[in-house]
Amino acid sequence: MKHADRTPIADLPAPTSATSLSTTVRVRVRYCECDPMNVAHHAAFIPWLELARTELLRTSGVSYAHLEAAGVFLVVVRLDCRYKLPARYDDVLEIRVRVSRATRVKIEHEYDIFRISGEVNPATLAGGTATDLLMSATTTLGCVDAHAKIRELPAWLASIDPASHS
Which residues are annotated as catalytic? Predict the structure, then answer.
C-alpha cells in the first residue's frame, strides 16, 4: 500500500530485535535544568520522558530518526503529569517507561521517575537504589506523516500488546 508522499508500508523500518515493552534510563539533573534554589523546573521532566521513550524504541533496533526518515512521525497528543516530590541539582534519576497500549494510529506510554539513593558510579550512573517516586506520567503519541496527516503506525508497533506480556 502506497500513499502520496508516504513510504510504502513494506519499506518502513522494522525491528532488528525483539520489541521491548519497557526500559529504564538514568540521568543526572543538570544545573541548567534548575531554578535558583537548585530544584529542577517542572518542564525539565518532559525531556526526560522523551529520552526514555526514544531509548525504548531504540531497544528494538529502530531509532526515531529511522522512522522520521521513512515519513513516520510520532507526535504527543496527550501528556498527563503527576508531580510528587522535587528533583534537585545533581540528583541521579531513574526514568521507567512502558508501553501501556497501542492501536492502529497511536501508542500510549506510562512513566515513573525515581530518585536514586546510595553509591552511584559517576561515569555510568549504575548502582544505588530507586527510592523516592518524584513523578508519574502518561503520554499518547499519534502517528502522522510529514504533512501532519494521520497515518498508520508501522505494523510491528501497532501490534504491540502489553496484555500478552503480563
Answer: 35
Burial of 84 (0-12, 13-18, 19+ CB in 10 A): exposed
Does residue 2 sit within a domain?
no
Number of neighbouring beta carbons within 10 Å of residue 6: 19
> Would residue 161 count as lying in a domain?
yes
Considering the domain boundaries, does residue 51 fall inside one?
Answer: yes
| Cα–Cα separations (whole angstroms), residue 160 to 7, 56, 70, 71, 106 | 21, 13, 20, 20, 11
Contact indicator for 74, 107 with CB cutoff of 8 Å: yes
What range does the domain containing 139 cover?
Answer: 21-165
The total number of structural domains in the chain stands at 1
CATH number, domain of 33, equals 3.10.129.10
Q: What is the pLDDT of residues 20-40, one digit of tens each?
A: 899 999 999 999 999 999 999
Report how far residue 91's alpha carbon sits from residue 115's, in angstroms, rounded to the nearest whole number.
7
User: What does the pLDDT look like over 87-102, one tens digit per residue?
Assistant: 999 999 999 999 999 9
Asked if residue 143 lies in contact with residue 151, where contact means CB atoms within 8 angstroms, the answer is yes
